[in-house]
Design brief:
Elements lengths: L1 E3 L3 E5 L5 H8 L2 H6 L8 H19 L3 E6 L5 E8 L8 E6 L8 H17 L4 E6 L3 H9 L3 E6 L8 E6 L2
Length: 168
């Protein structure tokens, strides 16, 4: 699976992406707004990839994907759909290294992932969750056409989350 936009290449993760995942999951904003996944080294990142994205590709045909600059191949972040047992619909998730914020990459990747999921995987309704104070993520979701539907408690998160919905 590969998706290309004007600036980005979006592709499945492999275990060789573990050093990048280790860096991304230890970004202060990732820990603050998403969760501390307890990944602290390459071996932990390989386990995260095996138990998360790689397992999801096999089970659902989609998951979180690596987002890189098309021109250079530099990894910027991840974006994709997550199938949680606790939500009724696939959940759009994304995270980027802080040094790549405010360049429109999350919106560009999110739009491409949604279009691909609908065209190739027949995905209808997609939801999203954010921490209550993640204003940047909330703006991205609104730009992608998500509408707020309230606040929910999501198992595995210490605080309530804003809940958003996007219908085709």
């Amino acid at each position: 699976m590969a998706i290309e936009t004007e600036r980005l290449s979006i592709s499945e993760f492999g275990l060789d992406d573990a050093p990048f995942i280790n860096e991304l999951l230890n970004e202060p904003d990732f820990i603050r707004h998403i969760a501390d996944r307890g990944v602290r080294d390459t071996a932990g990142a390989e386990k995260y990839l095996s138990d998360g994205p790689l397992k999801s590709y096999a089970a659902h045909g989609y998951g979180l994907y690596k987002v890189a600059l098309k021109a250079s191949g530099e990894s910027l972040g991840m974006c994709g759909l997550i199938r949680r047992d606790t939500l009724d619909f696939p959940d759009l998730g994304y995270a980027f290294l802080a040094r790549h914020y405010r360049r429109g990459y999350a919106s560009e990747a999110g739009a491409a992932v949604l279009a691909h999921a609908r065209a190739q995987r027949n995905v209808g309704r997609v939801v999203a969750i954010t921490s209550l104070d993640n204003d940047g993520s909330i703006r991205v979701l609104e730009n992608l056409g998500f509408r707020p539907e309230g606040i929910i408690d999501v198992p595995g998160y210490d605080t309530p989350s804003r809940y958003f919905v996007n219908d085709p």
